[in-house]
Every structure is written in C-alpha cells, then in structure tokens.
Design a protein that fits this description.
mainly alpha; 0% strand
C-alpha cells in the first residue's frame, strides 16, 4: 500500500510544484507574460523562446520531484542545497524514519527510548518535593 501511495503521490507532487513554481515565482510569471505577449502579437519571438521560462520550470520541477522521490525511497542522500534549506539533520532523519516504519511503530520506539529519561525526571521531582516537605516540618 505504501508503494502504491508513493507512486500515486509523484504526479501530485509534480503538479503542485509546477503550479507553485509558475504562479509563485518570478520566472514563472515572466513565462506567463512572455507567452501572453506572444499570443497577443505584441512580440514576434518564436514560441520556443517565449515559453523558455515555463520550459525551465517544467524541467526543474520534474528533476526535483525525481530527486525527492529517490531521497524518500532511501536511494539517495540529501544534497548540499537541501541540507541548507531543510530541518537539522537529526530532524530530517526522524521524519524519514517515521515515513518508513509508520506512526505506531515510531511512537512505540520513542516511548521505549524516552521512558528511562522520563522516569529519572519524575524521580528527581519527587525527591525535590520530599526534601521541601522535610524542610517545612
């Protein structure tokens, strides 16, 4: 089921990235303006040249979708730019681990990992409370 959702999610991620690139960025709007000007006959450039910013956006989003899919599949390490623009490495590892093992197994693993720390904190708090009670007496 995870593999099916993985492959179904790829075109969705690509389309979302392409729409965000086109409507949310300067290069995308430049492409929309150039294609509109070419369509209206204001400029007489070849269509290939007028739509070049949109073609770049398509190729860039396709590459980033494939790159992200390879990373989520565990077949590729995170690149330098992604490392600089994402969570700290420990957080990224935890997110990746969560996506691989599922929520229930991840929560069980974290409970086992954190139980001794929580018990130590509770024991310390109880000891402080008892020492305060002894001082008040």
């Amino acid at each position: 089921m995870k593999i099916l959702m993985f492959f179904i999610g790829l075109p969705v991620r690509f389309i979302i990235a392409l729409v965000r690139f086109t409507l949310g960025g300067l290069i995308g709007w430049l492409g929309i303006i150039l294609v509109s000007l070419r369509f209206l006959g204001v400029i007489h450039w070849p269509w290939l040249l007028a739509s070049l910013p949109l073609e770049y956006g398509f190729i860039y989003c396709l590459y980033m979708t494939i790159d992200g899919a390879l990373y989520r599949a565990g077949l590729k390490k995170m690149g330098g730019y992604a490392r600089l623009t994402t969570f700290e490495s420990k957080e990224a590892e935890e997110v990746f681990k969560l996506s691989q093992v599922g929520m229930d197994a991840y929560m069980a693993e974290k409970e086992v990992e954190l139980a001794p720390k929580i018990d130590a904190i509770v024991a310390e708090a109880r000891a402080r409370q008892q020492s305060k009670e002894k001082q008040n007496e």
